[in-house]
Amino acid sequence: MTVLATRTRSDPSHAELFGDFQHRREGLVAELGDMSDAYTASFEITQLDDAQGPAGTHEDVDAVVVSPEAKAQRRAHDLNRHRRDAGLPQLEIHTPPFVIAEDGTRISSTRSRNGEIDVHGRLLDSSK
Question: Where are stretches of biased composition, namely Basic and acidic residues (predicted)?
Answer without folding.
Answer: 113-128
